[in-house]
């Protein structure tokens, strides 16, 4: 029986919970896409609401940026604990391995649901359509597992930048200068500084649609510049913060102003993108595009920093439930998209309000995912593979033998 290793004394429970929460929000985001008034998903339900579009916008705004910020911090932490060799072995096993193993079955399941939807929309018969595009670097369908591919790219960049820095910084002077600069980044101005590169990248993005914000990375092996900028800056910032772990206290203390900034700029970006009836057309006027790109970029990092600060402020304690969901979130995210699509198709024929359908899809996906996680993943070699540890099944305590007292003389 594998013995569970003790908890590290400096485990960042709040950030671990936020990492899991960001992945679980992917279930809500993809489930909501079937109920938005604008066409944006292969499964389009008849019951729609602008509230579903607002929910999608709010989650998409900050979720993956916050995830990559935490990923950068944890990556730098792991290099410090395990060394470069241990880090590479762990990431190849737990990131590259799941991408290689689960990509094919996940894509096959998604295609099967797409065929199912096409048959439904065509009155029960398979429609004729154009053949799929040839598989190239530009058309490679990463699906929702794209984040694993981007993580591998950012890990490689981190190691490439770290090697010459470590070689040149033998006396620690460069490191101290970098740490001082990092300290100067922390304040109410942090979202503005981090947002500047993304604002430029979004402005330079051809055919940019503000409602969709950071362009998705589900197709193609070369990330688009805007997404690579958004997630790369967040990842690098997280790595720098790990060098100055004391700065987490400063971020935590700014939870209120970061939250106010996130709500204000997020609401402004939503309204400028059309609000309840968002425009699906690219912005063409240069001045309008520049203003919207700047506002959206500000909202992205304000939201990510607000989520980070709130997690540090309110979720830093030890919680068995949060730890369990954080552990399960990786498996849930890997398998959730085909399950979400199946749930949305099953809801099509029901005369339920959109929010009831959305709740049913989310509940069904979470139930199936958590049951399979508990029965197949958590207590098996798969748990060690995906989560870095296998939690043994609990066994009843062995009965304690009771020795009878000797009879009285």
From TrEMBL:
InterPro entries: Acyl_transf_3_dom, Glucan_succinyl_AcylTrfase. Keywords: Membrane, Transmembrane, Transmembrane helix. It comes from the Bacteria. Residues 13-373 form the Acyltransferase domain. The keyword 4Fe-4S does not apply. The keyword DNA repair does not apply. The lineage of its organism: Bacteria, Pseudomonadati, Pseudomonadota, Alphaproteobacteria, Caulobacterales. Pfam families: Acyl_transf_3 (PF01757). One of its GO terms (molecular function) is acyltransferase activity, transferring groups other than amino-acyl groups. The chain crosses the membrane at residues 21-42, 54-79, 100-120, 140-161, 181-204, 224-241, 253-273, 293-316, 328-348, 354-376. This is Glucans biosynthesis protein C. Signal peptide: none annotated.
